Amino acid sequence: MSGSEPASGLGLADPERENALLVGIIDAISAGPELLPLASNVARLIVYATATDICYVHVLDDGGGSLTLAGATPPFDAQVGRVRLPLGDGVAGWVASHRTAAVIGADKRADPRYRGVPGLAGDDYTSMAAVPMASRPGGLVGVLSVHTRERRDFTGRDVRLLTSIGSLVAGAMHQARMHRRLAARERAAERFAEQVIAAQESERRRLAGDIHDGITQRLVSLTYHLDAIADTVSASSGFAAEQLSLARRLADLTIDEARAAISGLRPPVLEDLGLADGLASLARSIANVEVRLNVAECRLPEHVEIALYRIAQEALQNVVKHAEATQAELELRCDGGQARLRVADDGKGFDQSALPDAGAGEESYGMHSMTERAELVGGQIEVTSRPGLGTVVTAIVPIRPEGTA
User: Fold this and answer.
1) What domain range includes position 50?
2) Domain boundary residue among 184, 208, 240?
3) CA-to-CA distance for 85 and 117, rounded, in angstroms?
4) CA distances from 379 to 8, 97, 307 (A)
5) 161 and 35, same domain (yes or no)
6) Three-state DSSP class for residue 73
7) Of 130, 159, 184, which residue sits at a domain end?
């Protein structure tokens, strides 16, 4: 692999050797969608199969204005990611801007397109061939080049072969780039969901604090005043005593409702106990409805756990307020790459075709709220109901495997 090959080409006249290169490239492509390992593996395969000394794989940046060294054979693999060439700069930049191959048989430094790149020791190599890497779905992806210390007269067949290899690699790199962009969008969407849910929970905590420190404290103070008045009003006062007693009961009821609202706005069990135990605590807190629990332990991101908890909370509140049910079931399962939260009741059900538009009523608002929460974490809500046969609400949320980007 020293550049001592005769000037008759790249040494791929042997079909077995050429086939080995193509099989190796296909294996490298199949190994995974990561761009840098793919470029480095391809560079090593090409150098071995072509008996050249160095191979560089430059990839077009997302902005399309420059090339970045994405793959190189030793000892220049340490420069991967560090070398950038503007389009039109150097031989590789010229090939990228003109979308055509460039061959220099000898004395590269005399070629007006050549520019020495610090760290790549280009002056140590005499001959080179560079071809654009392009594919039909992705267009230009980058530039592939091979270099030899001793003079090599690259032939038209050599260039065609390198171009074919470049096209094959370009298709894979286009897919790798699309995968990277998709992964970046997914990470951005997940970060957005985390921020939105965190903001929602922060606002709920603020409201809970305001209710506790403001409304609840004033109501408690009101009961003290009512008790003080009661001590001065005799039972024989008739109407006044009756109204005072009603006012005291109303104040107590309002305090209970305020405390229930605080508990709903800021349930401490979720962060203290986790989703499974948090759902169990939620089920126990539901009044007048027996809630059967069938909950599995699921390791989920915090913002997904919060979303599922809130969906379960809203669904059970709908059961209490609207379903006229005596029994309900709360189920959580995680399998097949998704989490499934299911709330079913034996209540009166409803005609789904007659359900009002979002925001047209309290029940519709609750359904709309659950749908929004599920969609925020990439999931969906399914509702099944018929008059007299109860209602089933199912939230389906995709699970990202741990350790993935």
Assistant:
1) 15-184
2) 184
3) 9
4) 60, 44, 10
5) yes
6) coil
7) 184
Distance CA 61, CA 142 (A): 9
The domain tally of the chain equals 2
Compute the C-alpha angle 291/295/299, nearest 5°. 145
Of 30, 22, 27, 74, nearest to 49 by C-alpha is 22
For residue 261, being part of any structural domain is answered with: no
Write out pLDDT tens, residues 339-372: 999 999 999 988 877 665 544 455 566 788 899 8
CATH number, domain at 163?
3.30.450.40
The predicted structure's pLDDT at residue 162: 87
pTM to 2 decimals? Answer: 0.53
Find tokens 């989490």 and name the residue. 339
The parts of the chain modelled with pLDDT lower than 70 are: 1-22, 26-35, 138, 201, 204-205, 208-209, 212, 234-236, 260, 262-272, 354-365, 401-405
**Residue with token string 């699309």:** 178
Among 121, 122, 100, smallest CA distance to 111 is for 122
